[in-house]
Amino acid sequence: MKARFLAVILLAAVTAPAQAQFAIDVTAGPNWTSISAAPIGFSKSSDIGYFVGGRIRFGHLLYVAPGLNYQYQSFIYNEGSTIGIEDNIGISSFMIPVEVGVNLNLKIVAVQLGVAGTVAFNTSINDNEFGVDKDMTTNTRWGWMLNAGARILMLQLNLQYQADFTDTFKDDPTGAKLSQFRIGLGIGF
């Protein structure tokens, strides 16, 4: 009996978003990216980048929201001991988050809290003094994201934290991973 009840609940949870209303959200804004480790003899710091993208949110109270973002993530390495080189390394990528969460709709104001799995596909690396190029990076990065958003009528504000599970560079003994804090401003339909 419990198995049937759980199966019905699971089926309802999976099919409810498809039957419920949907919304389209378009957002853009800055991101602050940091890297977890630097090569020996280097220091690291975060840098500002940007993102633009959108998602389709299925469901009312509980929702599923696949999305697509173009993002530029940048961080700074400083090799100050001998050469004194400091430069940013910027990674452009398309990120696909698939978010699940709760939407508390209070008519004029809606609050959303969600968690997402993410995958990012690197498209290019900026020119930099260290000679880092796309072939040196892990071009498919898996990660996760937390989202807290508020929507007033059609205007919305999202605060997001995203971190990678995957190392940023191939064959990197430091195991450096990217993370970012994002502020998204946008509209929802």
Descriptive notes:
The protein has 1 helix and 8 strands; from the N terminus they run αββββββββ. By secondary structure, it is mainly beta. The chain has an 8-stranded antiparallel barrel with strand order 1-2-3-4-5-6-7-8. The protein is elongated. The model is unreliable at 8-12 and 15-19 (pLDDT under 50).
Could you provide a short overview of the structure?
With 189 residues, the chain is mostly beta strands. It has one helix spanning 2-19; strands at residues 22-35, 43-58, 62-79, 85-106, 109-125, 140-152, 155-164, 178-188.
Instruction: Classify the secondary structure makeup into a structural class.
Output: mainly beta
Task: Give the overall pLDDT as a whole number.
Answer: 89
Overall radius of gyration: 19 Å
| Distinct helical segment count | 1
User: What gross morphology would you assign?
Assistant: elongated
Give the number of DSSP strands: 8
Beta-strand proportion: over 45%
CATH topology: Porin
Topology pattern, helix = H, strand = E? HEEEEEEEE
The residue fraction in helices comes out at under 10%
| Oligomeric state of the chains present here | single chain
Q: How many structural units, i.e. domains?
A: 1
- Major β-sheet profile: 8 strands, antiparallel, barrel
Task: Measure the end-to-end span.
Answer: 42 Å
Lateral strand order in the biggest sheet: 1-2-3-4-5-6-7-8
How does CATH name the architecture? Beta Barrel
Search tags:
single chain, mainly beta, elongated, eight-stranded antiparallel barrel, Porin, 1 helix, 189 residues, 8 strands
